[in-house]
Amino acid sequence: MRARLAIFVWLMLFSVAFARVLTPEEAFGLTLTPQKETLDVSITLGEDIYLYEQEVKFEILSPAYALLNPSLSLPESVAYEDYRIYEESLHVKIPLALIAQIAGNAPFELAVSWQACSTMGLCYQPMKEVFVLNSDGTPNALSEHGAIAQSLASSGFLWAMVSFFGFGLLLSLTPCIFPMIPILSSIIVSQGGVAMGVKRGLWLSFVYVFAMSLAYAIAGVLAGLFGASLQASLQAPWVIWLFSGVFVALALSMFGFYELQLPGRIQGALSKTSRNVEGQGVLSVALMGFLSALIVGPCVAAPLAGALIYIGQSGDALLGGAALFVMSLGMGVPLLLIGASAGKLLPKPGMWMNATKAFFGVMMLGIAIWMLSRVIPSWMALLLWSILCVGSAVHLGLVKAELKAWVQTLIKSVAVLLLLYGAALFVGALGKANDPLNPLAPFVGGALASGAGVGFERIGGVEALEARIAQSQKPVMVDFYADWCVSCKELETITFADPRVRTVLEGMTLIKIDVTANTAQDRALLQKFGLFGPPALIFYKAGVELKEAQIVGFKTADEFLAHVEKIF
Prior knowledge:
Immunoglobulin-like, 24 helices, six-stranded mixed sheet, Glutaredoxin, 3 domains, alpha+beta, single chain
């Protein structure tokens, strides 16, 4: 008898100890079903799961806040110890008329909160899901970056990585990655004294891209978790001046004024740990790749914004960081191709190598000017471009090497074109022009000089912005801009300069939020809209924000017009 009792007790303990605990996905599920007059909300419970009555909440978060529980017919709860609970799945009907009293006919945000426990004694973390819905209860369309964030949350790990690698390939075609091409090429060319083949060229470019990807991942995770943009912080004027000075120093070394190298004592210490060819220069290449990602190309596009939104909402830094890392690897594919072709496309040491180094020296000076254009007046940037073009033209005109006649003709033709373009830039600088691609705009009057030319109002602060939106009788477009943002200037000089776009913008109230300084006020404005940096366009209709209409990143004139036609 005692033996049977002991076996029974042992089996009971074994079954309790090894009982399978339901995952949150198995323990409960939330569904919303719009009906003709109601929005039906169901919280389906798994086996042996119950809900605390006091933790179940139905809230409208925007355009006005309201707790719906007092106005709803909730099922009867039962007593359990010192609490009231729901033992069965919960089904609630929210009248659409009640929602209309609070939100009108505008899209609204519905939050459903609950906390569940198991009869085994395990309690789950409080849960909360937010839905953006139309006035009839149907799902509101997501913005491009919102859809990406949702896709990241719902798709598997492998599919998310494949998707973000594809996003990176697309982003590699944007201007954000272009400045990194001459940087990496100059690194490869500067090591002309070392045997440069496909293997070494690919290795150097991989180190550069890997460090660049690591920087994007770290900065993105920090931005997603803490709402702070490391890239924006590194756009302080003194940082831009310092990094531009580095590129000038690199350019002068390319021209042969001096050789940039570590002190002999440090070189000796490094040589003890790195005897192989592949190990030479790795540290400097990695450092340049890391800094280039943070300072040279701080662009926010829809895939990047989507990953940051996912990290911020879920707290899943691992998946979000991995997505950003893989996306950056995709962005670096053109750089890897440059490295892989180094052994075949780059000239061997000799006269042509010196000419190639001088060419990349000019590219380094161009990057320095491009970076300084973020912190100096536009006319001054045009003046620097003019000096660079005229100087390059003069240098090419002085080439006296024994070359074939057609090569000499080509060089002199390029020199003349550079001289003419440099002269146009100089004249444009005198006229206070601000677009290097259209330096004579102030004299011909046929182009848009800046966003201000289409009636943008500059406003700072959340309260001032909300007041101005409330006053407007027209649709409102809020443009988040920064001087250091390449895509922001593309929007101004390409998209907003299009006559068709200007006609559409005339029917809107246009507000520009300049976050160049990255002040506390700027960060508060970004946080209000769930943004992590410029460029971004926010649209309002009848004083209500159209969340699905947000634009993050650059859009061409045709894409912008199609987007506006769809939302208005």
